[in-house]
Amino acid sequence: MATAKTPQPDTNGRDPRPASDADNTGHLSAEGGPALLAEYRLHRVEDAAVFLRIKRTKAYEEIRLGRLRTVRIGRRRLVPTEYIDDYVDLLKREAEAA
Predict the structure, then answer these.
(1) Which member of 12, 17, 53, 67 lies 3.0 to 4.6 Å from 62 by CB, making a disulfide possible if both were Cys?
(2) Cβ atoms of residues 49 and 30 within 8 Å
(3) Are 30 and 50 in contact (CB under 8 A)?
(4) Whether 41 contacts 54, CB under 8 Å
(5) Per residue in 22-73, pLDDT tens?
(6) Would you call 90 helix, strand, or coil by DSSP?
């Protein structure tokens, strides 16, 4: 008789199961992230990067350059939805000017 095996993490430590809108830590996945954009007003930098389809490092670089704005609550750096929209508008303006 065959028994169902629990999926084991792959060699990179990731869970091989399909990602849902939010994992068990409450963070958004790339597959379901944009659907939750309207639900939350403040986003972790990592989640904003998912929405923007850029790498986390690039998001922090854009913040450092002042192109992607954030707010601070205590030690946490969060990106309001409006600032994500402003950043996309900035990218559009730059593309039109080029």
Answers:
(1) 67
(2) no
(3) yes
(4) no
(5) 555 556 555 555 555 558 899 999 999 999 999 999 999 999 999 999 999 9
(6) helix
φ/ψ region of 95 (left if φ > 0, alpha if ψ in -120 to 50, else beta) reads: alpha
Q: CA 60 to CA 43: how far, in whole Å?
A: 13
Q: CA nearest 51: which of 38, 70, 66?
A: 38
Residue in the structure block whose two tokens are 């950043």: 87
- DSSP state letter for 77: E
* Letter string b/e over residues 69-82, b meaning 16 or more CB atoms within 10 A of that residue's CB: ebeeeeeeebbbbe
Q: Are 32 and 21 in contact (CB under 8 A)?
A: yes
43 forms beta bridges with: 79
